[in-house]
Specification:
Layout: E1 4-5, H1 7-23, E2 31-35, H2 46-51, E3 58-59, H3 62-65, H4 82-91, E4 99-103, H5 111-120, E5 125-129, H6 132-138, H7 167-172, E6 178-181, H8 185-189, E7 206-207, H9 223-231, E8 241-244, H10 250-260, E9 266-267, H11 271-275
Parallel strand pairs: 1-5, 2-3, 2-4, 4-5, 6-7, 6-8, 8-9
């Protein structure tokens, strides 16, 4: 299945489905847009969503719906349970067989969490809006205000479709594969640490900031350029590859970029927020050797 969708294609799909609904006929496909606005600086994207979103888009609260904070010791954004994600999916109106498009205003660096989780949950067709909301706005496409409350859906989460690694596997991965750190380079080097208790990176990990997979407009680089970027870091098809970040959010963006490049990669959900809190876990600083 495609990983990305372009703004013009999304506009056409939504218009065709709306026209079919007005005629009282089944459109054949159904596209659900999820708005996942979140950042470390502004974790609550509700106000921005209400001020303007893609028509029909449903707001997704990353902190509350894409993580389970009742889980202790697995980082700042532990993965939700199948049951809690199922409940969220149904609140969003998702039905089996839907095409789901996720977006944000951060070059998909937060929306990728929803892309990864829904793929992990067995949703076959999940795409990121390439260029995210910036591309939609730049094209002059319409925005709606206010809240969208869809009719409840019937989709069910069944985890297991995406590879996951734990802290032990992440620490061992550099011995025979490649572990990528998707945080900003200065956090990787240990020069700054704004939120977690220790600064630095998992020994043997290689710095691959998630923003480096995007062009100046916030779109993903072409597949061949992504392959070159990751090959320079040792990540190629057939090599065991894993990705982590601060709390498993932008690492999902790295997994998506690797997938566009044709490289399978596992996600370490606990990421640095788990690793740095566990006594006895080694920490490296500085650049790679």
């Amino acid at each position: 299945m495609p990983i990305l969708i372009q703004h013009d294609e999304l506009l056409e799909r939504l218009a065709a489905e709306r026209e079919a609904a007005e005629r009282g006929t089944e459109p054949g496909t159904r596209t659900v847009v999820l708005d996942v606005r979140w950042s470390l600086a502004a974790p609550d994207g509700t106000e921005a969503y209400l001020a303007g979103h893609i028509p029909g888009a449903v707001y997704v609260d990353l902190d509350r719906e894409l993580a389970d904070h009742d889980v202790v010791g697995e980082g700042r954004h532990p993965l939700p349970t199948e049951s809690s994600l199922t409940a969220a999916m149904r609140r969003w109106g998702l039905r089996d067989g839907d095409t789901v498009v996720v977006t944000d205003d951060l070059g998909n660096q937060s929306a990728a969490r929803a892309w990864w989780l829904l793929r992990h949950a067995g949703v076959a067709d999940v795409r990121m809006l390439d260029g995210a909301l910036a591309a939609w706005r730049a094209a002059g496409h319409p925005l709606d205000t206010g809240w969208v409350s869809p009719e409840p859906g019937d989709a069910t989460a069944h985890f297991g479709s995406m590879p996951v690694i734990d802290a032990d596997a992440a620490g061992a991965l550099p011995d025979g594969g490649v572990l990528l750190d998707a945080r900003a380079a200065e956090r990787y080097r240990g020069e700054v640490e704004p939120i977690d208790p220790r600064a630095g990176h998992i020994p043997g990990a290689r710095s691959a900031p998630s923003g480096g997979s995007l062009d100046e407009s916030g779109r993903f680089l072409p597949a061949d350029e992504l392959r070159e970027r990751f090959a320079a870091l040792g990540a190629e098809p057939g090599v065991a590859v894993g990705a982590y970040c601060g709390s498993g959010v932008t690492a999902a963006h790295a997994v998506a970029a690797l997938a566009i490049a044709g490289i399978d990669a596992a996600l370490y959900p606990g990421s640095w927020s788990q690793w740095s809190r566990e006594e006895g876990r080694p920490v490296a600083t500085g650049s790679e050797a």
